[in-house]
């Protein structure tokens, strides 16, 4: 068996976007794999036949990363197979082409070309569609300009950016002032293309049924707020009916459930922004409670071996189904029309997306145990693996199994895990690394994590815990507002103490600590409050809550909500929980990893801490990745992901071995 190495991420296959055909016979999904020569990921559509129980590749263009079913035998997917259109898109022209492929055979052919930057599409029938597109009301109608005006517009657009609202940026999308996600109706036969929503209205979720569209949106001009409106739109009549006014509820899902309108939303009164949604019926302009809910309705699992998305909801027949994280695992949860919530599946890993079959079975993409992603079927409580996309890799490499290691604190259980090093010998002594997840409202589990497997293969103990603030244990457990750096710090230190006591093979003098995002914040905090770690790797971190609030995409609402408000009139509470305040106490050699397009935790956070440590004579280094964003460790370009892990392992080797 081979050890897991850094570059093995080039061999992994990443599954996403699962969708059942209308007749329930076929499951289509996307498979992506890193292409080192192109420094990108190539994607293809795959098809699983539920009758013959076989899997085959459907497309081979290398650029297919999303799709939808048009009917029982036809799939539509966006593509840039026309070189001329590819050139126009590269220059900045808003175009989207969709290709159709018959799963029974034949080549993909261009089906429709739309003069918009389309994000997603849902069919009303074979010729009419509802589109979600990215638009900017301050920009001219590009396709109405003359060729000379188009050329001038494209040149000028590269010279400067005007910002006149907040947030003015978004991680992964760049500067976003006046950019919105807008709904359109499109008729392929007539060419009719008309907007459904307003120029300044941003749509976060939509569903179609018959001639109706149900969507969640917010309209803003100067400042985005968290609350949304729920609106019903009739295609033929062109009429809008606001079902729930904006200003009260943060909404996550809405759908047609029989004759009723169903909504998952929270008023944020008890646990503020992080409060999980309750489930409601929408009746005559008011919400009628169907069921209270204390858990997220999406996966919060920390993974670094997935790409792409997919649906995490299903509203079929007698149940609303969704993904939820409980403890250190994902489940499919079902809500009945009488308000009962049930969990399906096993405590066994992550679930990224799913679809419900006509017989009540569920097909999902996930990581089970320490396996990489595969397609599974959950039927009558039994999970069956359907694909073997990553089995060849698993069967030829040594995977180090995490050991569940919970600790008790004053009657409170914290879920933790320890991964012993490869070829572990109880008579030897090894260095150890504390790893901290982001969020903090996310969760670790026993699922496969490439970074941790690489470290274990190199001879390190890796240990990690879900401290207070993590997801999967209910809203009260997740709520650490105004306590950052206090209760969580205690949990990390207590967990480390108990791991060291249980594993005398870990050398107390050779401990490292690392984490990203909130984990980077805690890494910065830890090195300013203890010298027990011989070195640290701080990734996409936070060092100064004042600058974090004022320079990032979620700073003015999310971070202010979580750590104590704005810098005015008194910045002291924010400064007191900022690691930068304690930089003068740091002695730990620290590596900073950051991306220059990270608008979630801007590079100024890493640069400030790096500069402070340099000024105080601490051994430090910063590696800044150009063109990457907050998702570097998960979906960054292959070469940068490899370099990131090499920087990390070299730093640990230098100070721990």
Which class of secondary structure composition applies to the elements?
alpha+beta
Number of helices: 13
Using the coordinates above, name the CATH class of the domain at 400-656. Alpha Beta
| CATH topology value of the domain at 400-656 | Rossmann fold
Large-scale geometry: globular
Q: Total strand count, please?
A: 40
CATH superfamily of the domain at 400-656: Alpha/Beta hydrolase fold, catalytic domain
Helix content: 10-25%
- In CATH, the architecture of the domain at 400-656 is 3-Layer(aba) Sandwich
Instruction: Please state the CA-atom Rg, rounded to the nearest Å.
Output: 25 Å
* Share of residues in strands: 35-45%
Sheet with most strands: strand arrangement: 31-34-36-35-37-38-39-40
* Cα end-to-end separation: 25 Å
Average per-residue pLDDT, rounded, comes to: 97
List low-pLDDT spans. none
Largest sheet report: 8 strands, mixed
Task: Summarize the structure in short.
The chain has an 8-stranded mixed beta sheet, sandwiched between helices. A 4-stranded antiparallel beta sheet has the order 1-2-3-4, with no helix packed on it. The chain has a 4-stranded antiparallel beta sheet with strand order 5-6-7-8, with no helix packed on it. By secondary structure, the chain is an alpha+beta fold. Helix content is 18%, strand content 37%.
Descriptive report:
The radius of gyration is 25 Å and the shape is globular. The longest helix is centred in the C-terminal third of the chain and has 19 residues, at 638-656. Helix content is 18%, strand content 37%. With 657 residues, the chain is an alpha+beta fold. Helix 8 (545-551) packs antiparallel against helix 9 (555-563). The mean pLDDT is 97. The protein has an eight-stranded mixed sheet with strand order 31-34-36-35-37-38-39-40, with helices on both faces. It has a domain at 400-656: Alpha/Beta hydrolase fold, catalytic domain (Rossmann fold), CATH 3.40.50. This is Prolyl tripeptidyl peptidase. Residues 448-656 form the Peptidase S9 prolyl oligopeptidase catalytic domain.
């Amino acid at each position: 068996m081979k050890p897991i190495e850094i570059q093995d991420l080039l061999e992994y296959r990443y599954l996403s976007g699962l969708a059942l055909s209308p007749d329930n016979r076929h499951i289509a999904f996307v498979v992506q794999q890193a292409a080192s020569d192109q420094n990108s990921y190539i994607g293809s559509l795959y098809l699983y036949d539920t009758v013959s129980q076989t899997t085959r590749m459907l497309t081979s263009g290398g650029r297919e990363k999303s799709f939808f079913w048009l009917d029982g035998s036809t799939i539509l997917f966006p593509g840039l197979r026309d070189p001329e259109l590819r050139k126009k898109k590269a220059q900045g022209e808003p175009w989207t082409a969709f290709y159709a492929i018959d799963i029974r055979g034949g080549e993909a052919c261009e089906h429709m070309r739309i003069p918009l930057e389309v994000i997603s599409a849902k069919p009303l029938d074979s010729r009419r569609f509802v589109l979600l597109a990215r638009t900017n009301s301050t920009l001219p109608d590009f396709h109405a300009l003359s060729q000379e005006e188009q050329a001038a517009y494209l040149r000028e657009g590269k010279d400067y950016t005007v910002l006149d609202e907040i947030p003015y940026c978004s991680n992964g999308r760049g500067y976003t002032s006046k950019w919105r996600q807008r709904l359109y109706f499109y008729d392929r036969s007539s060419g009719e293309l008309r907007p459904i929503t307003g120029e300044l209205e941003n749509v976060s979720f939509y569903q179609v049924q018959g001639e109706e569209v149900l969507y969640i949106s917010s309209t803003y001009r100067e400042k985005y707020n968290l609350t949304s409106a729920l609106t019903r739109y009739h295609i033929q009549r062109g009429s809008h009916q606001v079902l729930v006014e904006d200003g009260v509820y943060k909404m996550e899902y809405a759908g047609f459930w029989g004759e009723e309108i169903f909504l998952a939303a929270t008023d944020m009164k008890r646990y503020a922004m992080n409060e999980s949604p309750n489930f409601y019926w929408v009746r005559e302009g008011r919400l009628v409670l169907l069921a209270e809910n204390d858990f997220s309705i999406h996966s919060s699992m920390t993974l670094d071996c997935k790409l792409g998305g997919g649906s995490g909801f299903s509203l079929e027949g007698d149940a609303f189904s969704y993904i939820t994280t409980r403890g250190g695992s994902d489940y499919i949860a079902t809500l009945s029309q009488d308000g009962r919530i049930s969990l399906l599946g096993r405590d066994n890993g992550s679930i990224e997306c799913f679809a419900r079959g006509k017989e009540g079975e569920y097909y999902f993409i996930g990581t089970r145990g320490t396996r990489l992603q595969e397609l599974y079927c959950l039927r009558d409580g039994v999970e069956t693996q359907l694909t073997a996309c990553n089995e060849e890799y698993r069967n030829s490499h040594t995977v180090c199994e995490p050991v569940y290691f919970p600790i008790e604190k004053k009657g409170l259980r914290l879920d933790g895990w320890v991964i012993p090093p490869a070829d572990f010998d109880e008579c030897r002594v090894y260095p150890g690394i504390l790893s901290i997840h982001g969020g903090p409202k996310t969760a670790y589990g026993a699922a496969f994590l490439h970074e941790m497997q690489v470290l274990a293969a190199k001879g390190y103990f890796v240990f990690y815990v879900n401290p207070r603030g993590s997801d999967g244990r209910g809203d009260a457990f997740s709520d650490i507002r105004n306590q950052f750096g206090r209760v969580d710090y205690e949990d990390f230190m207590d967990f480390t103490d108990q791991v060291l006591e249980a594993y005398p093979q870990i050398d107390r003098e050779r401990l490292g600590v690392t984490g990203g995002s909130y984990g980077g914040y805690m890494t910065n905090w830890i090195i300013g409050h203890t010298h027990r770690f011989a070195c640290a790797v701080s990734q996409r971190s936070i060092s100064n809550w004042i600058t974090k609030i004022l320079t990032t995409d979620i700073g003015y609402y999310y971070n202010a909500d979580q750590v104590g408000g704005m810098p005015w009139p008194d910045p002291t509470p924010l400064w007191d929980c900022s690691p930068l305040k304690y930089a003068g106490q740091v002695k730990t050699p620290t590596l900073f990893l950051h991306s220059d397009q990270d608008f979630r935790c801007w590079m100024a956070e890493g640069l400030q801490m790096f500069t402070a440590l340099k000024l105080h004579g601490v051994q430090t280094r910063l590696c800044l990745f150009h063109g990457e964003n907050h998702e570097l460790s998960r979906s960054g370009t292959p070469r940068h992901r490899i370099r990131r892990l090499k920087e990390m392992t070299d730093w640990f080797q230098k100070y721990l071995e």
